[in-house]
Amino acid sequence: MKLKVLFIGRCEYRRALELQYELLEKRQRGEIEDTLIIVEHPPVITLGNQAEKTNIIASQEFLNKQGIDLVQTNRGGDVTYHGIGQIVGYPIVDIKNSKIGIRNFVRGLEEIFIQILKDCFNIDSERNCQHTGVWIGNEKILAIGLAVKRGVTMHGFAFNVNTNLEDFKYIVPCGITDKGVTSIEKLTGKAFDIDEMKKLVVEYFLKVFNFDEVEITEMKLS
After folding, report:
1. Which residue from 55, 111, 116, 219 lies 20 to 30 Å from 64 (Cα-Cα)?
2. pLDDT digits over 131-189, tens only?
3. Which domains are delineated in the chain?
4. How far apart are CA 204 and CA 222, in angstroms?
5. Distance of CA 125 to the CA centre of its chain
């Protein structure tokens, strides 16, 4: 199996969403192979299709002053935050023909980061039976929110590496009131090269989902 990886650097959320839809339609028609978009977003709060607007604590005016965008999406889940120092991945993957199923696909995404944290940082993490993502105690380090359109996935995961965790205070992350968020930087006390971490995520994505061939492209979106 072959995976195409697009590194698109730092990109506005709305433009990356347009790219997702373009690739989604091509994958549904069988014109491209499974594709993984890797991106960093400028600060943005997104609402999933189950989001409660009361989970955004700050006002629109305040968020505007902080330079934080606000976007409604069609992914699953509630409210989340994306920002610099966070690796966001959008897998455009045909799970219908591969017969992996959405539940196993989500577990595979979680497994990628459970393995990275253990192998590369000696950090023990786990799944939570009530909430998707990867957790260290009561703090989430990986968020997952997907949509599946005609058997093909879009949206994806957000992995906190050097993320500014202060910005999470403007929301109730994923609508969960009794848990927090964390990052590799917070856990280790030091920041890591984000480009090297992106490569690591791709390496483990290939391994967990059994892709044996990869084509990597770097591009900037206008």
Report:
1. 219
2. 999 999 999 999 999 999 999 999 999 999 999 999 999 998 878 788 899 999 999 99
3. 2-209 (3.30.930.10)
4. 29
5. 17
- Terminal CA-CA length for the chain: 30
For residues 16 and 13, give the distance between their C-alpha atoms in angstroms, rounded to a whole number. Answer: 5
Residue with tokens 């999406």: 73
CA 33, CA 29: separation in Å to the nearest integer?
10
The single residue of 11, 120, 129, 174 carrying the catalytic annotation is 174
**Chain-centre distance of CA 110, in angstroms?**
11
Specify whether the CB–CB gap between 193 and 175 falls below 8 A: no
Q: Is the CB of residue 134 less than 8 Å from the CB of residue 117?
A: yes
pTM: 0.95
Q: What's the rounded mean pLDDT across residues 92-113?
A: 95
Residue 123, Cβ density class (10 Å: 0-12 exposed, 13-18 middle, ≥19 buried): middle
Coil/strand/helix, residue 49: coil
Assign 3-class secondary structure to 66-117: HCCEEEECCCCCCEEEECCCEEEEEEECEHHHHCCCHHHHHHHHHHHHHHHH
